[in-house]
Amino acid sequence: MDAFAEIEDSLVEAVRLRRGESPQPTIGAIDSESSRSALPRSQKGIDGNKKVKGVKRNIITDKDGDILEASTTPANIHDSKSAYAILAMLVVAFPWIKRIYADRGYRGNFIEKARHDFEIDVEITHSNYSGQFVPAKKRWVVERTFAWLENFRRLCRNCEETTESANEMLLLIF
Questions:
Q1: How would you classify residue 169: left for phi > 0, otherwise alpha for psi between -120 and 50, otherwise beta?
Q2: How far, CA to CA in Å, does 1 sit from each of 8, 77, 87, 89?
Q3: How many Cβ atoms sit within 10 Å of the Cβ of residue 128?
Q4: Exposed e or buried b for every residue in 71-98, given b needs 16+ CB within 10 A?
Q5: Given the DSSP bridges, would you call strands 45-47 and 67-74 parallel, antiparallel or unpaired?
Q6: What is the pLDDT of residue 30?
Q7: What is the per-residue pLDDT across 111-128, written as a single tens digit (0 to 9) for each?
Q8: Pick from 15, 48, 28, 56: which is nearest to 122 by CA?
Q9: pLDDT tens-digit series, residues 134-167
Q10: DSSP state letter for 132
Q11: How many Å is the Cα radius of gyration of the chain?
Q12: pTM of the predicted structure, to 2 decimals
């Protein structure tokens, strides 16, 4: 575990204690967002769904929106493929997490693998497609965290050459 991750984990515990909550979160929310690359020589891929050439940030937050784990991959990696790796990191740092809320991008084998390998239930929350904005149940916190991250100039576009440094910048800023 690197220094930024250790600092972040201890800060999340301290903030949760200050709020009067248990220092160990038991539920989380996972999602990803694609970010355009600002450098021509950086590691990147093309997210075909969103027409973005850059990187994809995958995060798992607790119920308050604090980042528990994060990973950055080229944008062409599907959500469910990168989710397994980030879930493995989460289990090491936060073994008491038992439920994760996700969107429809995480359907399929990922749900069974998470249950079998990590004993974590993944619940897919469905959005309301009635034309009006309705926050998705228990998953809106991860969307709000992405909105917070977009306020930082270094995160609204990917300015890093490698996905590793892009992930460290994500943890450093948040």
A1: alpha
A2: 11, 23, 15, 9
A3: 11
A4: bbbbbbbbbbebbeebbebbbebbeebe
A5: unpaired
A6: 93
A7: 999 999 999 999 888 766
A8: 28
A9: 666 778 889 889 888 888 877 778 888 888 888 8
A10: S
A11: 16
A12: 0.85
